[in-house]
């Protein structure tokens, strides 16, 4: 059974509309076909019609029933989006004609559809870098009010449950923030915990990871994690958390009891917050590629409306699962 089946089933209940601005990618069309035929989300393919038809022919995908928007043919929408975004972009030195050229790109047009409420969320990254995908989202959709930063997390479904019985973990931040400071790390922990609860229906238990446990080492990198724990405590979250914890102390009950006997999460953490992007990105890929974990994400947090980033190494199944998670972000 798919460990993420509950996410797919819940997405079917809310039935959101998502835009996909990479029409000629070999994974997007089959995924959109499945999302539509199984009633998981309502997909809208955004891009040139000739590229879409050529890809459909090459991949033998039936386009019947799939909605498609070509920015070059959308005169009314283009005018509406220009009116919506012109003032903001003018402040950044982009005039109306420059904005028109920008919105001619499917990635930006899709983001404008989300910003205008013509779609509930967007999904890209199969054929674009994280920087390109995030730049369009930040410039058009914009961060949520009060957001310190936009961060990300992955859901990791393990092949075998941990001794704590946990089978689905959240890893953060593994895709966006290179070297978060203490307050940023606390913000990542809070957003990831809330996202974990929303998508899985499970209660988060957060571990702020380090190479030290409970002061076993003294180093500026350890002190950063300790400061992040204090910052998270000041936010008064409604879930248990602790840090700094080594990975084994965070997820293995016996080692947790030995290294941090008074910790509220040691040995049974399900949300793992890495101290920097180096450790987070390496960590999730080790678990995915060597341990065979199934992955959903990266899921972005901190935007006004959902706009998620796919890995360029994603599969059709990855696209389907991330789309379902994006639908639940809207619902949450």
TrEMBL record:
One of its GO terms (molecular function) is phosphate acetyltransferase activity. The keyword Transferase applies. It holds the Pfam family PTA_PTB. Its EC number is 2.3.1.8. Keywords: Acyltransferase, Transferase. SUPFAM superfamilies: Isocitrate/Isopropylmalate dehydrogenase-like. Pathway: Metabolic intermediate biosynthesis; acetyl-CoA biosynthesis; acetyl-CoA from acetate: step 2/2. InterPro entries: P_Ac_Bu_trans, P_AcTrfase, P_AcTrfase_dom1, P_AcTrfase_dom2, Phos_Acetyltrans/Butyryltrans, PTA_PTB. Transmembrane segments: none annotated. Belongs to the phosphate acetyltransferase and butyryltransferase family. This is Phosphate acetyltransferase. The lineage of its organism: Bacteria, Pseudomonadati, Acidobacteriota, Candidatus Polarisedimenticolia, Candidatus Polarisedimenticolales. The gene is pta.
């Amino acid at each position: 059974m798919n460990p993420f089946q509950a996410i797919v089933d819940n997405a079917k209940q809310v039935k959101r509309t998502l835009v996909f601005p990479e029409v000629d990618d070999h994974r997007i069309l089959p995924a959109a076909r499945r999302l539509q035929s199984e009633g998981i989300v309502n997909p809208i393919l955004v891009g040139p019609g000739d590229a879409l038809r050529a890809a459909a022919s090459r991949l033998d995908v039936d386009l019947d029933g799939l909605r498609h928007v070509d920015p070059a043919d959308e005169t009314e929408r283009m005018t509406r989006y220009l009116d919506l975004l012109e003032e903001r972009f003018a402040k950044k030195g982009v005039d109306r004609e420059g904005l028109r050229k920008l919105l001619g790109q499917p990635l930006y047009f899709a983001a404008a559809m989300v910003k205008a409420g013509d779609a509930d969320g967007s999904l890209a990254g199969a054929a674009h870098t994280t920087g390109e995908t995030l730049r369009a989202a930040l410039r058009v959709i914009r961060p949520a009010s009060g957001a310190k930063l936009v961060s990300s997390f992955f859901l990791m479904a393990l092949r075998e449950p941990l001794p704590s019985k946990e089978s689905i973990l959240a890893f953060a931040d593994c895709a966006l923030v290179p070297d978060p400071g203490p307050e940023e790390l606390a913000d990542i922990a809070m957003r990831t915990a809330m996202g974990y609860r929303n998508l899985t229906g499970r209660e988060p238990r957060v571990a702020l990871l380090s190479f030290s446990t409970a002061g076993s080492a003294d180093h500026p990198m350890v002190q950063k994690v300790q400061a992040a724990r204090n910052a998270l405590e000041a936010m008064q979250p409604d879930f248990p958390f602790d840090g700094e914890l080594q990975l084994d102390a965070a997820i293995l009950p016996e080692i947790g009891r030995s290294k941090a006997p008074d910790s509220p999460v040691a040995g049974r953490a399900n949300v793992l917050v890495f101290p920097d992007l180096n450790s987070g990105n390496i960590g999730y890929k080790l678990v995915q590629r060597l341990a065979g974990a199934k992955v959903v994400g990266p899921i972005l947090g901190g935007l006004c409306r959902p706009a998620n980033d796919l890995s360029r190494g994603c599969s059709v199944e990855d696209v389907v699962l991330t789309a379902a998670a994006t639908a639940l972000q809207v619902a949450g």
